[in-house]
Amino acid sequence: MSAPWPPRSDADDRREAEERLGADLCARFAAVELLVLDVDGVLTGGEMLYGPGGEALKAFHSRDGLGLTMARIAGLKRAVLTGRDSAIVARRCGELRFDCLKLGRFDKQDALREILAETGCDAARTLYVGDDLIDLPAMHLVGLAVCVPDAPAEVADFCAWRTTARGGQGAVREVTDLVLKASGRFGLALTRLGDKAWRPRPDELTSDVKGGLPPEGVQ
User: Fold this and answer.
1) Among 26, 99, 120, 167, which has the minimal tally of Cβ within 10 Å of its Cβ?
2) Which of 106, 54, 102, 56 is nearest to 78 (CA)?
3) What pLDDT does 31 receive?
4) Confidence of residue 207 (pLDDT cuts 50, 70, 90)
């Protein structure tokens, strides 16, 4: 006899999230419809590796990628908002089918308002994950602000939740799992992962691109 799939009920997932977050914060996570992520220090560890031609590499975590895929197929919108303009980030966001991409934007409040308009999402139901002082203006606009463990005190004191995992080492996956479990959509995401209609396209699973990186802003 095969084991049931998904392995746990939605009620069990919600209970786990509530035990971790507390009832009030769990309800706020459950209401999220848009995830907005900084890049350096959140999707990556924050290191910037340069070669003779400029920025050469960024390291992303595959578990964050799966979490963001699960968020997408469960119905959440996802956006990146970063102060650096990076073809590497554009490529990664294209692979993960992000709904909105704002690169090279130090005016994070204005950029966040653009994201809200373009996605049709409410600021009150938006979760922002950041790691440094530049993220605070955008955090003040959203319903739920989250930071990574090494964020400065000014950021950590404002945020409703601080991840246990560090940026680039599973922090984003921690957030996506909590949102999906709190809202009862974790099981739905697991089910859809096994459905051919929801699987990533072959080009989204390719590690190499002939001729180097795609143009800036590729979707």
Assistant:
1) 120
2) 102
3) 98
4) low
Q: How confident is the model at residue 197 (pLDDT cuts 50, 70, 90)?
A: confident
Under CATH, which number does the domain 17-191 receive? 3.40.50.1000
Q: State yes or no: pLDDT of 34 exceeds 60.
A: yes
pTM: 0.89
Collect contacts of 143-152 with beta carbons under 8 A, ≥24 apart.
143/28, 143/31, 143/32, 144/28, 144/29, 144/32, 146/175, 148/41, 148/42, 150/41
Domain ranges of the chain: 17-191
CA-CA distances (angstroms) from residue 114 to 15, 104, 109, 117?
35, 14, 9, 5
Strands in the chain per DSSP E: 34-37, 49-51, 54-57, 77-81, 100-102, 126-130, 144-147, 161-162
Q: 206 falls in which pLDDT band (50, 70, 90)?
A: low
On the 0-12 / 13-18 / 19+ scale of CB atoms within 10 A, 64 is buried
